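During the no-cost extension, the postdoctoral fellow (Dr. R.K.) reprocessed legacy sequence entries with the updated structure-token encoder. One reprocessed record is reproduced below for audit purposes.
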Amino acid sequence: MASTEDTTLFRDVFEVNPDPIMIHDADTGTVVRANEAAGALLGCPPADVVGMHVGEFSPPGFSTADANALIAEAATSGSTQVEWTTEGPDGESRRVEVSLERAVIDDVTRVVAFIHDVTEIRRQERKHTERSQQLQTLIENLPVVVFTLDSDGVFTYSAGKGLAELGLEPGELEGVSVFEAYGQYPDIVAAVEQALDGEEVRVTQKVDGLVFETWYRPVFGDDGELTQVVSVARDITDLKQREARIETLSEATNELLYTRTEQAVADTVTQIAQRIIDQPLAAMWSYDSDDDTLYPIGATDEAVDFAAVEAASDLPPMGPESDENRLFHDGSPTVVEDYQALSNPSSPQASLRTVLFLPLEDYGMLCIGSPTVESFDSHDRFLLDILASTGAAALDRVERETRLKSKQTELERSNEALQQFAYIASHDLQEPLRMVSSYVDLLDSEYGDELDDEAAEYMAFAIDGARRMQEMVNALLRYSRVETTSGEFEETDPEAVIDRTLDALQMRIEEVDATITVGALPPVEADPNQVGQVFQNLLENAIEYAVEAGMEPRIEVSADRDDDDVVFTVSDNGPGIPAADREEVFDIFHRAGAHDTEGTGIGLAVCQRIVLRHDGRIWVEPSDDGATFKFTLPAVTEVCGDD
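Re-encoded structure tokens follow.
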């Protein structure tokens, strides 16, 4: 028998409990007592709950008989549980968990209903379940392999669509040791061992012809011990193949830089096309605008065999009326899904189906074919578009180089003929000039005393004209010999060359009291004798024109390195060169301004020809004081030896 104190305690606990509590009659199921929380649950005072039958507030479909059965079960067995969805006073559905417990109160058997609101708990559980299902669905459909290993390297989980690439089903590896399943792959074993040692590992691995990028992440427990390794493997086989194709295209582009003929371009382009998209039937045609026809110039061996011809040149041309010719003039890459469906193909007997036509600007067309219906994906098309553009650029370069080579050959032939003419002309003029000079001198010596003043003047004119003609012929001969008597290029010290030049001019320098200052001159790759001719001509001109102008010659020679060239400067204090003559001053037999000093006007022309032979240039710098000549010669390239 419970004491009054116990009864009071029981009542207090019953009333203040935050969870709804009801006490039922074990025989009838009616409520004999309810706390405040129970009233709040049903939306009425606790006193109104008393007398209600449990079936009155049970969820729809749960009858009074069902409720009585639960009460009876609890009264008999001692306890039972049920979970209901009930509607609260606010009209909102609540999920409650009801525990029915048998109790003896005041010597009467009762059933106490402890009601716990689990709405939020169930919502969180549903949310967790949904997320778990979503995550599982996501993992199962990701194009990767997700797996976990225990601390011994045994698979505990495996999922993901990537498993299909390996011929595996989700979960098939579970319970199998990774060292047993993949022991023949040393890189996998090494990566797993690192991960089991606690290292995070990211590696690229090959498995059965596939390439995977795999991430291993160790997971540790609260005690710091490794509990498992979580891993994700992504199939990057296609990516690696694309990278390889791009690399192949890049290397091939470099090959095209060194092709020198249209045939070489065609051979290279067709081989590249075969390699980068793995389509063996590749051929190339060249466009002839004269008859508006595309002629075959290159093909893969497979394409030649497929067409049953001996060589690529035996493939059929694409005439003005052919569909291929029309596609070429359209100018855009075109995929013909069924070659047999064309109305006027150039090769109707060919058992081709899908063909990709790639015009190479105005130079020709590249064709990629297949005996079956194929699709060229966007990546293949992208690579082939680059190849077509590169091929067109190579053909353009070949055409320009061919024209340039033809012009160069023609120019060399013309230049050689001109040199020969100048040499022969100047050489053959020597004899008649000597004869004229000899007989004029003979006339002067034999009959000079008998001539009157006018006749003597005429004789002097004749002698002077013959002499000047002889000087011009000799100058022309020197000009023609710049190429024919030239020496090999070698490392040349300009300072030593100008020292020899100054020695040769020493008497003239002392005679006119000329001052010549020479700075540091870097070495050049040149013909030392011809470099000496350039310096001598420039110095002689500077001295003579300064003396003619009544000045003591002051000449400075300097040089500076400019990348692969050395720029020489020869400046003087003479009368200078008029602006109008700065371009023509290097023309043969041209002399700038009016001068009393004798000369043929060949010196600067010889200088220019020598400098041009060295792939340099010579020019006159604008100057308000004297003349300033500049010219370039190739600098000596420094080659470092082995340490």
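The chain has 18 helices and 22 strands. The first strand starts at residue 21 and ends at 25. The remaining legacy entries will be reprocessed before the final report is submitted.
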